[in-house]
Design a protein that fits this description.
The mean pLDDT is about 80. It contains seven helices and no strands. It has helices at about 10-35, 45-55, 60-75, 80-110, 115-135, 140-150, 155-165. The protein starts with 7 loop residues before the first helix and ends with a helix.
């Protein structure tokens, strides 16, 4: 009897068996080509990473793997001390402006549209500055050059560290 002559339910059963066998074989080959490791997260870490993976429309493992590889291949350290300082200064400016407006509102019980506009402009400037910092993080090369320019004596130490990691 030819497969097309089989009853429909029997054909469905044959397909199901084939798919099951095919998946088993595929999984064996897939796992043979890859290294499997277990990473343990706290509940908070897991939820944070899970949310980020959903935002990027990637599976959890795929997101963790790609994030780690992209982070390492770009060699970025985000943010560095100077970037953190500039973010804090921007927040302080914004906070000062808000405090001044709050004081005026509490004392006069009114707000001028120019004041509201100034707060909005300041907030947009702050947002742009923070986005720029995270769009163009400082590279490891920039950090090393900065350290060397401040303290040239570190050139030898950096060279020793680099030489110790050569393969």
């Amino acid at each position: 009897m030819h497969i097309l002559e089989e009853p429909a339910d029997r054909i469905d059963e044959i397909r199901r068996i084939y798919r099951t066998e095919y998946r088993k074989e595929y999984k064996k080959k897939y796992q043979k080509k890859r290294i499997h490791r277990v990473v343990i997260f706290t509940h908070e870490e897991y939820e944070l990473i899970k949310q980020a993976s959903e935002n990027h429309k990637l599976g959890f493992s795929t997101f963790v793997r790609e994030s780690a590889i992209k982070y390492l291949s770009n060699g970025y350290v985000v943010p560095d001390k100077e970037q953190v300082k500039s973010i804090l200064v921007a927040f302080k400016k914004y906070g000062t402006l808000l405090n001044q407006i709050a004081f005026l509102v509490n004392s006069k019980k009114a707000v001028d549209l120019n004041q509201i506009s100034a707060v909005q402009d300041n907030f947009h400037d702050l947002e742009k500055e923070i986005r720029q910092i995270f769009k163009e993080p400082i590279t490891i090369e920039d950090i090393v050059l900065n350290i060397i320019s401040i303290e040239p004596k570190y050139i030898d130490k950096i060279q020793l560290i680099l030489n110790s990691y050569k393969k």
